[in-house]
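Objective 1.3, modelling of assemblies. Example input:
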Amino acid sequence: MDYFYAFVIGGGMCVIGQILIDTTKLTTPRILVIFVVAGAVLTGLGLYEPLVKLAKNGATVPLPGFGYSLAKGSMDGAKDGFLAAISGGIKNTAAGLTAAVVFGYIIALVFSPKSKR
Amino acid sequence: MTSKEKELNNKPEKEVAKKYEQYVKQFTPRPKYFSNSLKAFFVGGLICIAALYVQNLLMDKGLSEKNAGAYVTVFLICLAQLLTGLGVFDTIGKFAGAGVFVPITGFANSMVAPAIEYKKEGPVLGIGAKLFSLAGPVLVCGITVSAIIGIISYFMQ
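Predicted structure (tokens):
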């Protein structure tokens, strides 16, 4: 049943993205920003947590899940004091961010641009 | 000439323009909303299922849910970046649209794609700067919002 919800919720978020691409003139970076900020704000309001409990990776793998991890980190940190409230967001996403930067740098060094097929 | 006369004189031109617009509309291809959404739904859903499957495998081996989730994210990011480097990601993206751009794979792709494109400008100002040309706005907005949320929840306790 977990797999079913992961499929439907994850796919549903992609459909929202596809509709935004097709029907509005929003550029890709704006859509990415909208998704991440929406995920963070919904988490702050307590609306995203139930979705994560229900769909697991279906809610954490799409971009709103990145906003969720950021906001969750700061909200958890807020219990330990002001400094943890500020640093919690990046701390919670540090693994993914570091991997993206380091591996991305290596990939860009190794591969050269290709003509689009 | 009074304004009314002007309006009357312009009327035929406007009608012609309108007719022309309708005529053009017949021949411009409309985006296939339904099939695009369907593709995005299936590909995006499959990525989430694969992520859940790998996470369950890792948790069976004794990793905590939080660590397993982090490993899955790292794995997805590395895979997407490798595919971008090989030039395959664009082909998949053309088919699946938002299905691969909304999951975290799209974020990984948005970092590497411009970095490879501007490789000629050098390892610092080319790759180093362009890694964040698309990801930068996402990180700035995301981190700002999360810090604000953290501060609010600190003062609300």
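The CA atoms of residues 55 and 70 of chain B lie 9 Å apart.
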